[in-house]
Amino acid sequence: MIPPRNYPPRRPKVRENVNEAIRVREVRAVFPDGSVEIMPTLAAVRKAQEMGLDLILIAPTAEPPVAKAMDYGQWQYENKKKQHEAKKKQHIIQVKELKFRPNTDDHDYEFKKNHAIRFLGEGNRVKAVVQFRGREIAHVDIGKKLLLRFAQDLATHGLVEGQPRLEGRNAHVLISPIKAGSVKEKPKESGPAT
């Protein structure tokens, strides 16, 4: 039989800024009935526990710090829900890469251009790359012309970041989506004055 390992006993998890863990002398205590009092921390904790609630430090930098009497589990749940909502509204911009060859056919070019338009519409950046293999590297000018044509075709959907650059056996160009507010609207033509 294997003897049990001697692990140290688990310490109970200390909840920061709740009840006795609040380390300030006095707080501005807010209670569910709407009353607000400046009182010693221990008295506020006692009063909250008499109501069956926890005292949670809401604004530790205020003078004096603000503490609210409420259920700790409910407070945690509401905080997680707020964080989840904030995360849902975020949009992470990704760089989508489209690969070409110097002799890419017109149909393939149009197909990839449509993908790029969709990516830019979703708010992502597009990186168009022309790969040169073998002796194709002798015709870098064809690849750069292809990238310039691609950038020109997408001018209405995105902004080109610099000229096509050659790195090793690849030439590439980056295109960023046009922001909604950065496009200048044409002034509306007014009809005859009435």
Number of DSSP strand runs: 8
The structural class is alpha/beta
Mean model confidence by pLDDT? 84
Give the number of helices.
Answer: 4
Secondary-structure element series: EEHEEHEHEHEE
% residues in beta strands: 25-35%
Shape by Cα distribution: elongated
N- and C-termini, Cα separation: 101 Å
Strand and helix map with partners:
Blueprint: E1 26-30, E2 36-40, H1 41-50, E3 54-59, E4 66-70, H2 72-88, E5 95-100, H3 106-121, E6 125-131, H4 140-153, E7 158-167, E8 170-177
Parallel strand pairs: 1-4, 5-6
Antiparallel strand pairs: 1-2, 3-4, 6-8, 7-8
Description:
With 194 residues, the protein is of the alpha/beta class. The chain folds into 2 domains: 19-72, Ubiquitin-like (UB roll), CATH 3.10.20.80; 95-177, 2-Layer Sandwich (Translation Initiation Factor IF3), CATH 3.30.110. Helix content is 29%, strand content 27%. The chain is built from 4 helices and 8 strands. Helix 3 links the parallel strand 5 and strand 6 (125-131). The chain is elongated and about 80 Å long. The model is unreliable at 181-189 (pLDDT under 50).
